[in-house]
Design a protein that fits this description.
Number of helices: 5
CATH superfamily: Glutaredoxin
Structural class: alpha+beta
Oligomer: single chain
Largest sheet: 4 strands, mixed
CATH architecture: 3-Layer(aba) Sandwich
Length: 140
């Protein structure tokens, strides 16, 4: 009986360790959706952030809760954030998707067409959703 208990406890421990390892491995790959803005926020710029947040909250709740997707609005004019304008070659308000694996950025994409779809929420939503889905597939 004692041997069965030891075998059971060992299997339980190993199973818990494997689950922790699997979750840790998945968390090493993620997509960060940065919305970059400046100190002056026009109605269109606010709309970009709102629409982007709505897409993520509506279609990617599970990815956010698992850590596979993060949404980070960042004011590039605040001290310490200036480097983003150089890093991502920003010239205006932008939504940038960044693929991070093992702690380092592997690729990024500026979703420049958000400006084309500023007046069409449906097209904006589809464009952002499709690009996030594609980047999340690459993260796996």
């Amino acid at each position: 009986m004692k041997k069965i208990f030891i075998v059971f406890m060992t299997a339980l421990f190993l199973g818990m360790s494997f689950v922790g390892f699997t979750q840790e491995t998945k968390a090493q790959s993620k997509v960060v959706a940065y919305y970059f803005y400046g100190s002056f926020r026009c109605p269109t710029c606010k709309k970009f952030e709102q629409y982007s947040r709505e897409v993520i909250d509506t279609y990617f709740k599970e990815a956010v809760s698992s850590g596979e997707l993060e949404f980070k609005p960042i004011n590039v004019e605040e001290k310490g954030n200036e480097h983003y304008a150089v890093d991502y070659k920003l010239y205006t308000k932008s939504l940038v998707l960044s693929l991070v694996k093992d702690g380092s950025e592997k690729k990024w994409k500026n979703l420049e067409k958000i400006w084309d779809y500023a007046g069409n929420k449906e097209k904006f939503t589809g464009y952002v959703k499709d690009n996030i889905e594609a980047m999340l597939k690459e993260a796996k």
